[in-house]
């Protein structure tokens, strides 16, 4: 525990497997991480592999626990994953404070480095990130290192009670694997794929096998050892499966609660749809299209409808929704009926200038024309087009006095500044006015 | 028989009586119905020219207005259906149009507008609200630049049909569409009917996606 400070700059911090590799990049990654020559690491691995397969086991373990260099998404879990191989392999004499520090606090390792000598790196890692305590990796590591050690010792002639050790190690590894699956499951990061199921089943088999081996290899099997063995397997399996069972029941109750909420909401929506919306439609019909009562009923209907059918999704506000909001406020203030029809969808931020110009155009139509105003939005991948049509007296740009800024400044000039165009023309059948705003999206992308 | 005969199907009696009193006097209301089963019986018994049909109806197997159309249309061959709804939701539109409705308007339309739509449907035309036109443009990929190469293509709109739909979506009446495109109103109606046919027959998945997602079709 003397070499705690990260003075060696060759240490890269995270143990990752590089792209350039012979088998899986474990040796190269470890060599780069520890500063040892690659050839040396490879030779040691090979020699260890000849010692009853210990090297192969170590290799496999590092392979499983070390992230790929290319997998940037695994960066968050990298510190957790790389610290254990390092600690276990070097007997925790050479540990990396920076590798133990959570990624959010890069300076903590450096500042507390000299003081850690008393507290111990394990304590630091445990206290800083209690949820990330790599229990599963430690279990796995112990199992594999223990196996390797036992194999080497056995090969060297030591008389070890292998018939007890190996089953224990197998059971330990199985439990470790199983709990690791659980940790992934809980964090929500693990893919719910068949691969996970296979791994989980493998863990179960390992545990059962280990416990069985324990009893089968013991001397003088009798009825009681068989019974105890069976019980032990059951208990072992229960321990391994417990996290899933807990998780499953919690998921189920969560889902049931969500379904109940959803059902209640749907029922209320159906009820309101049948009663209130119908009544509001009736009011609009009876009161005549341009009366105050119809206007109020319409605004209420729109509010209610938004709440009923889109209330759950508070996602990004799109252009159509923005325009509908504008329409609602305009309808409250003026005796006008604004219809918004939207085609296509904008999957990016709507330029403020376009919205402001459209609001001005709708307001203009409401003020000067009244009646019904049609708003049509078409969003194609290359351009957004908004047209506001009214059936009022109509006007042309030439008619507007020079001191009236509404149309000229708020609509035409604003659209030009945003890189788009605006035009004013007679409406359908030569009556009223049609204001068309169009904004090419390519320009918008160049100048965000 | 000069009068246009209609049947009003809606599960709200207030709405039925309201609509009935607002309708053009030239329209003769033969009957009313409040549920799917009632509607089928009344339509088959009275054989009206046009049925003003609410999309959401209780009874039957839960299929609402679309179920009425499917069940009654074979037994009332000269009857046409005009869908009325408080909802502008795409799945509602798709369901009734594909079941065979000749048009779709919202319930907030005035009595005069409903009468006009009924008359147009009786004349063999399709009735497209601006919102329905917008939906058609969306569903047929017109915004993304998809254009039919031949006239008998069902999955895309021709360039002319797109122009007509765009103008209807902008709130233009058929006559205004005609003068804006320098074509006759009859040609506009032909285009709209062609679009309606495509809407009913096309297998574009967008048309059914909403409905199937909610198990409506």
Automatic annotation (TrEMBL), chain B:
This is DNA-binding response regulator. PANTHER family: TWO-COMPONENT RESPONSE REGULATOR (PTHR43214). PROSITE patterns: HTH_LUXR_1, HTH_LUXR_2, RESPONSE_REGULATORY. The modification 4-aspartylphosphate is found at residue 54. One of its GO terms (biological process) is phosphorelay signal transduction system. GO terms for molecular function: DNA binding. The keyword RNA-binding does not apply. Residues 150-215 form the HTH luxR-type domain. Residues 5-122 form the Response regulatory domain. It comes from Cryobacterium zongtaii. Keywords: DNA-binding, Phosphoprotein.
